[in-house]
Amino acid sequence: MKHLKKLTLLHSNDMHGDFLAEKIDEKLVGGVSRLSGYINKVRNEEKNVLYTVSGDMFRGSLIDSEFLGISTIEIMNLLAPDVVTLGNHEVDYGLAHLLFLEKCASFPIINANMYIKLNGARLFSPYHIVEIDGMRILFIGILTEDVLNHTKTEGLVGTLVDVREAVTEVGRISDAYRTEDIDLTVLLTHIGFENDKLLAASLDPAWGVDLIIGGHSHTLLSEPCVVNGIPIVQAAVGTNQIGRFDITVDTDRNCIDSSSWQLIPITSEKCPRDYALESVLNRYKRATYDKYNRILTRFPRAYTHPRRNMETELGGLFAECLREQLDVDLVLLASGSIRLPSLGPIVTLKDYVEVFPFDDSVHAFRITGAQLRRAAAFLMRDEVFNPDAHIEWYQFSRGFFCEYDRASHTVISLRMNGKEAADGDLFTVAMQEFHFLGMKEFLGLPLEEVKANGAPRQIASLAKNVLEEYFASHDLIRFDGERRLLIH
User: Fold this and answer.
1) Going along 374-465, which residue ranges are E strands?
2) Nearest to 145 by CA among 159, 157, 160, 162
3) Reported confidence tier of residue 120, pLDDT bands at 50, 70, 90
4) Which residues of 416-429 are buried (b: 16+ CB within 10 A; e: fewer)?
5) How do 161-163 and 419-420 pair as beta strands?
6) Is 120 left (phi over 0), alpha (psi -120 to 50) or beta?
7) Cα–Cα distance for residue pair 6/163, rounded to 1 Å
8) pLDDT surpasses 60 at 163
9) Is 156 a residue whose pLDDT tops 60?
10) CATH says 295-487 is which class?
């Protein structure tokens, strides 16, 4: 006779400080008050409930940025997750600050594959075992390699961090605890949906991994994706929804007997408000909005940024404003730095900081026409054109034009200010520090090769301040409407 027990596993990912409800089709959706209300409701209704978060608690809202994640940790403490894994944006405020925030958290934060190179010690606990109703649930945390690029800006501290191969770490931890009575093994990953599938396919069935709950790619699913017998899920992005697994665990065979999964919308119909959490949130909201509610500038209309891997109005506008302010030939602005799908027509400081929150410096470097063509071809590689791709992409300032043929993978024409770029031409290009340091990965150009054209230099300590100053000193700012890309 089987010994079966029920477990309800709730999960979020990529919350990005998304504290407030938003109006969609005249209804309020999401926000941490109703998210907390739903979690508490399920905890009261069901016997065995666990709540997990698969990375990127931080970065994306004004309240989070203003308090450097401390507000997020206090609110997450009230949500009371049972275990959280790290995402790449957890290091945005610096590794030292992340270690401080970990001490502020009343919940365990895990990661199995970030190491100090000097002595091989892990920076965080690699796993967490939750004991509930006689069951032992093993959680293992795996992080995307993107964190390496973030920590390159950390100087000496950043050079000590390494990310080891995920499969090896999962096998090592699973082997170490397989001898204990572990009833369920769950990977909390922040590596993206496609990499989750690759990871699942590479896992040894003997390691006993039962579920992968992922993040990073903001993937919206209608049902789990099963690879190598392992269900893989995500809960998109923000607090507009939460994932829910209802699982029957076979405690004799230490595996899932049956399960169902659904994505629950966080709406007033299903989710009561948590007034205690709201009181804490309102304290942060008042302190932040009083400071940031002044009007910065105006646009003739709202400009849009619907996807990170396409040319957008808002991306082109930001890149051109930065080029004018910095007096360079070309600005390559990371699409992922623009965090909201539109801005304007009235732009408050609050709106601006929420749409462009990152605190990177700006570096200028010299690049040849031949190198620029190689970079353009690299940026137009096939995987970029997947609408769901969660990869680095760039917005270009005015004067740059590239015509590209996808069938032949050929740059047909590359012009700067109306003139075809010759191989030997030199151009001054500006990028944010994170992307400048990751140039080989993001543009296909080794940094040392670019340095041979002349020493790069930092030309602004904060890109955010440069753009804010431009907006504050210009009114009725218009997007030029110029096409930067023509893709066949």
Assistant:
1) 394-396, 400-405, 410-416, 419-420, 426-432, 457-460
2) 162
3) confident
4) beeeebeeeeebbb
5) unpaired
6) left
7) 35
8) no
9) no
10) alpha beta
Structure tokens at 103: 């001490």
Whether this prediction's pTM lies above 0.85 is answered by: no
Token digits for 485?
């890309």
Report d(CA 356, CA 387) in Å as an integer.
22
C-alpha dihedral sign at 428, 431, 433, 438: negative
Residues in CB range of 404: below 8 A, 6 or more apart: 376, 377, 380, 410, 411, 412, 485, 486, 487, 488
Rounded CA-CA distance 289/359 in Å is 20
Q: 277 with 284: CB under 8 angstroms?
A: no
% of the chain exceeding 70 in pLDDT: 94
Give, as one character, the DSSP assignment of residue 461: S
What is the rounded CA–CA span in Å between residue 85 and residue 3? 30
Q: Kindly list the domain boundaries of the chain, sorted by start residue.
A: 4-286, 295-487
- Determine the 3-state secondary structure of 243 from DSSP: strand
The CA distances from residue 326 to 313, 319, 459, 463, in Å, are: 20, 10, 8, 10
The DSSP secondary-structure symbol of 125 reads B
pLDDT at residue 53, rounded to an integer: 98
The CATH number of the domain covering residues in 4-286: 3.60.21.10
